[in-house]
Amino acid sequence: MSNFEEKNGKRAFRVYPSWDATASTQAERTQQWQLEYFFEIIEAMDFNKIAAL
Question: What are phi and psi of 48, to 5 degrees?
Answer without folding.
Answer: -65, -40
